[in-house]
Amino acid sequence: MIVQQRISALSNWGSAIQVLIDDLPDNHESPLSEALVQARNKNAWFVNSNSINALNEICNILKINNLNKLFEANFGLKSEVVNPKAIGIVMAGNIPAVGFHDLLCVLVSGHKAKVRLSSDDSILIPALTSILFEMYPEFQNMVEYVTQLSGMDAVIATGSNNTARYFDYYFGKYPSLIRKNRNSVAVLNGKESDEELKNLGNDIFDYFGLGCRNVSKVYVPEGYSFIPFFEAIESYSNLMAHNKYMNNYDYHRALFLLDGIPFLTNNFLIVRENEAYPTPVSVLHYEYYSSVEDLEKKLDGDKELIQCRVGANGLPFGSAQQPDILDYADGVDTMQWLLTL
């Protein structure tokens, strides 16, 4: 298939997935409905609402205008790839179908994907590609699911800082993209509206805060009051019904009390002053700033640790988990890297 044919097919694939999503309330026996149930049974963090949200984002990425944007941004894309490379993809499993963008880039590039799924997210992406294979059998020889990577020409691997060292050791002889931990931040100026603060709740709580694009830390001006913030996010109190989330909340609340660590809480989120970016589930860090200029210098110096930023001089509140098709993980252009192989 030439690249224009691949893009057209991938767009049609997205449309077919969207039809199945829209049909979910009336069709509980569709393959996609069954996949959602299996994904939830395998991983309790993958509640239906989160998985469906992730699938809707995938459908948006697969819209023809977005795929054309990806094509137009990569002038080196060849119409046909004479000698396609085998690209090993080690996918993470922190949020539903989180490795989809890497797979999409490989398919658009015309190379072949050898995918090692995370045990936490082994259902949804195969369910999606089965739809693609049924529609366009020619894609079947472009995707292979494996339990152990071998015979590849290059590797894309996503994991924690610890697993990144493992990846560097085992895949060091291959051209590779190795991704580490990143977190996202919000910068508040104290003048946010109730609606903006409520939308910030999406940035914090979508996917239970497990994604690298979830806000784990907020910067607030000195003297900032968190009362309006807590009032605005009260609509997310349904998190209290999720056992795993509340187990995390209860554990860290007890731990901070025992250690005498001061914190604020609304009974489902712990807000703690801390300089670190990573946080456990149910915990949000904050740090005061007195100078916007100094804060900008700090954030610029930490840009390798930050996935995205919302609020002042950043993305609109509520959009952290709605990445553009050209928003690459760790800021590394996956398509351009694939074109160098």
Can you give keywords for this protein?
341 residues, alpha/beta, Aldehyde Dehydrogenase, Chain A, domain 1, Aldehyde Dehydrogenase, Chain A, domain 2, 2 domains, six-stranded mixed sheet, five-stranded parallel sheet, 40% helix, globular
What does this entry look like structurally?
- This protein has 341 residues and is of the alpha/beta class.
- The chain folds into two domains: 3-180, Aldehyde Dehydrogenase, Chain A, domain 1; 183-311, Aldehyde Dehydrogenase, Chain A, domain 2 (3-Layer(aba) Sandwich), CATH 3.40.309.10.
- Helices cover 40% and strands 16% of the residues.
- It has helices spanning 3-22, 31-42, 48-61, 64-72, 100-109, 124-135, 161-171, 194-205, 227-232, 243-258, 292-301, 334-339; strands at residues 86-90, 112-116, 143-145, 154-158, 176-179, 183-187, 215-221, 264-265, 270-273, 283-289, 306-311.
- It has a six-stranded mixed beta sheet, sandwiched between helices.
- Helix 1 (3-22) crosses helix 6 (124-135).
- The longest helix is centred in the N-terminal third of the chain and has 20 residues, at 3-22.
- The mean pLDDT is 95.
